[in-house]
Amino acid sequence: MKALVIHEFGGPEVLGLEEMPTPTPAAGEVRVRVAAAIVARTKDVAARAGKPPFAPQIPELPHILGAEHAGVVDEVGPGVDPGLTGKRVSVSAVLSCGECRACGAGREEACASFKLIGVHRYGSYAEYCTAPVQNVRLLPDDLDFVEAAAMAANGPVARAQLDAGGVGPNSTVLVVGAAGALGSTVAALAAYRGAQVIGVDRLAAKPGCLAALPLAVAIDGDSPDLAQQIRSAGGDWGIDCIVDNLGLPSLWDAYRDSVADMGRIIVSGAVSHAPISMHLLPFYLHSQSLIGVRTGNRRQMDAFWRDVTDGFRLPTAMMHGVSWEAAADAHRSVETGTSLGQAVLLIGA
């Protein structure tokens, strides 16, 4: 099979198309003829550059990157229903042991042996990729592979974030980095739940980047009066849930005082790794919570795909399919922060 392979860590130019052995599904696995694979900021772009947290976990080079994806099952391993052959599916990248305390509690995202397709084993930047059968979900007939891959990557974690934040009708939600792959999914899903959504991103640097999202308010994250704008958007009560996928100290300082009583801050990213200034007093005086969400578990994955069955869709402007021959350009776009929504590689195109 053809695959995008890295033989060393480095810039986007280390990605190269070459022939690799076609994988065979093991017991309990399926093999998918990959049609679309997402470009993930941390799992793909940072790992390719040799950066933590995932580059040090790649067992050896050469390696095939590629996490969540979508395509058609073309072969099943022992113990798997042969009726899956020929089915259109999305594929989660999360690999869990099924035996530890976290897995026993249905919290696979906290598995003691947590691994990922595309990091700990060959991934989906290839014509074929194998995965445990429990990682695949059948696709609605009207869902194309680009949107399916984007949803597989961001939908379950977005649902996990909103569940942790207690977001529902009449909630006010602030999404930091709302033009990003995960941020745009969180914003769209929060609005689908009936929440009022405030989006923050670099509007002057990326004009129109939030135009496709169902936002009540869009705020420029580079505004000198950012904190004041956030407070104003939150109204007298404040903001019930803040979803922060960036973890930048300047943004934390801007939104921290706008959290409502009983409000929750959900964090799923720390792009700068810089420490933030935290004072514990407001948390207990105002019954507030700070919650880390790593990714979605299988229960949340199932719940998200029920949302999709019930009609949830991503704004088309927040998904971009590009030929896998332009993978280096896609990586550069994500790396420099100029990408909008989710970049998706069209495998074989």
Task: Give a quick set of tags describing it.
9 helices; alpha/beta; 25% helix; six-stranded parallel beta sheet; 349 residues; globular
**How would a crystallographer describe the biggest sheet?**
7 strands, mixed
Using only CA atoms, what is the Rg?
20 Å
Kindly state the mean pLDDT as a whole number? 96
Secondary structure: number of strands: 17
Could you tell me the strand content as a percent range?
A: 15-25%
**Multimeric organization:** single chain
Q: What's the end-to-end separation, in Å?
A: 14 Å
Pairing-aware structural class of the strands and helices?
alpha/beta
Query: What is the count of DSSP helices, taking H or I runs of 4+ residues?
Result: 9
Low-pLDDT residue intervals, each spanning 5 or more residues: none
* H-E string: EEEHEEEHEEEHEHEEHEHEHEHEHE
Q: What is the overall silhouette?
A: globular
Q: Can you describe this structure in just a few lines?
A:
This protein has 9 helices and 17 strands. It has 349 residues and is of the alpha/beta class. Helix 6 (249-255) links the parallel strand 13 and strand 14.
Topology, element by element:
Blueprint (H helix, E strand, L loop, with lengths): L1 E4 L10 E4 L9 E10 L2 H8 L20 E8 L11 E4 L2 E2 L5 H4 L10 E2 L11 E5 L3 E3 L6 H20 L7 E5 L4 H12 L3 E6 L15 E4 L5 H9 L4 E6 L4 H7 L3 E9 L13 H5 L3 E4 L5 H12 L9 E5 L3 H10 L5 E5 L3
Parallel strand pairs: 10-11, 10-13, 11-12, 13-14, 14-15, 16-17
Antiparallel strand pairs: 1-2, 3-4, 3-8, 3-17, 4-5, 5-9, 6-7
Describe the structure.
This protein is α/β, with parallel strands linked by helices and 349 residues long. Helices cover 25% and strands 25% of the residues. The chain has nine helices and 17 strands. The strands form four sheets. Strands 3, 4, 5, 8, 9, 16 and 17 form a seven-stranded mixed sheet that branches. A six-stranded parallel sheet has the order 12-11-10-13-14-15, sandwiched between helices. Strands 1-2 form a two-stranded antiparallel ribbon. Strand 16 (319-323), helix 9 and strand 17 form a beta-alpha-beta unit. Helix 1 (41-48) packs across helix 9 (327-336), helix 3 (145-164) crosses helix 4 and helix 3 packs across helix 8. The radius of gyration is 20 Å and the shape is globular. The chain starts with a strand and ends with a strand. The mean pLDDT is 96.
